[in-house]
Amino acid sequence: MDQLKIQGGLKLKGTITVSGAKNAALPIMAACLAIPGRTILENIPKLRDTNSMIQLLTQLDVKVEQASDNTVTLEPQSNLISHADYDLVRTMRASVCVLGPLLASRGEATVSLPGGCNIGHRPIDLHLKGLAALGAEISIQQGYVHAKARELRGARIFLGGPQGSTVTGTCNVMSAAVLAKGETIIEAAACEPEVVDLGNFLQASGAHIEGLGTPTIKIQGVEELQAIKYRVIPDRIEAATWMMAAAITQGDVTLESLRIDHLSALFDALQRAGIVPEIMSDSVRISGIHQMHPADIVALPYPSFPTDLQAQMTALMTLTTGISVVTDRVFPDRFMHAAELMRMGARLRRDGCSVIIDGVPTLSGAHVMASDLRASAALIIAALAAQGETIIRRIYHLERGYENLTGKLMSLGADVERMKEPK
């Protein structure tokens, strides 16, 4: 495995382009299982997760072509393969998004229970509840979900859970319901931009969907979808991560090709912390940051502050003057990065689903271990501002969600080196 060596204390300066959104690309790629013909997807980020999805779709008899410009062409073949193996699904939770399209297009699906980052309990019971309401017969045997349906029929489905709406569950049910007979109403649907992007893709392919971006989605089933060319939205989480990295280093960074309307909660949180972004039509500049203020942040489902930025915000708040409280209501156990930040000199205390941060003047470089994708990003943010050298191990997590991370860091002037971990 590889590790990153970062020499902290340098201000990030320059311009970078935000990559396509991983969490939009994956369910859109999965939905192509139910679309005959050649679908062309643009702005697909080159990541470990998108590569895993390509391998899974290839296993399910989809012809895949990749171009150097982040374009992927997907064309389902005639063989009715509907079995998604554990070896692929275990590495990526979004693999479960093939369940709905397989069921809708092939009448059956056998999909391993999913894996992914270790950020807390994430059952797929709401996925299965929604598909069962559409008429699927579902059982779980030996770690696999088995689903069959001679015909899917529209239904009224409630997808609310203990931590709010289910994003991947909404994607799964929506991808199946567009080919079901009659009307489907999804209540307590996820409102995240990535869900809306999947819905926009399906609509462009011929689906009839109303209410995207609201808690109630209405779908009128159609007989068939058509292959199209579609461009995936920019990654709001990557954009936000770079903003925080620029702020903590007191740098001057401009981010291009992003969706301003997807980042309102982040802009509010940054402004409360004394960071005022310069917002343009499709770009943002972070500069002139000299002193940050403590702030209380609560991660909730969209449009509130995202749980996928909770770890990065925690790292940013370690260098403020005063007390900050960062709370995660979506994944209350998502604080494995806290202990690693403390190794770098941060003063943190866990209290239930919150972490209380007593800001320090400086952080110091240390050997730290990444536990999941966003925790890895938090450690990089801290390392960029720390005095001395930081070694971050298990960086394979980063490759799941940040395209060309090392290259982008170097283009902004960071002193970073990727190397093999010692045996």
UniProtKB/TrEMBL annotation:
It comes from Rubinisphaera italica. Its EC number is 2.5.1.7. Residues 7-409 form the Enolpyruvate transferase domain. The keyword Cell wall biogenesis/degradation applies. One of its GO terms (cellular component) is cytoplasm. The keyword Hydrolase does not apply. The lineage of its organism: Bacteria, Pseudomonadati, Planctomycetota, Planctomycetia, Planctomycetales. The gene is murA. This is UDP-N-acetylglucosamine 1-carboxyvinyltransferase. SUPFAM superfamilies: EPT/RTPC-like. The active site is at residue 117. GO terms for molecular function: UDP-N-acetylglucosamine 1-carboxyvinyltransferase activity. Belongs to the EPSP synthase family. MurA subfamily. It comes from the Bacteria. It is an enzyme of class 2 (transferase). Pathway: Cell wall biogenesis; peptidoglycan biosynthesis.
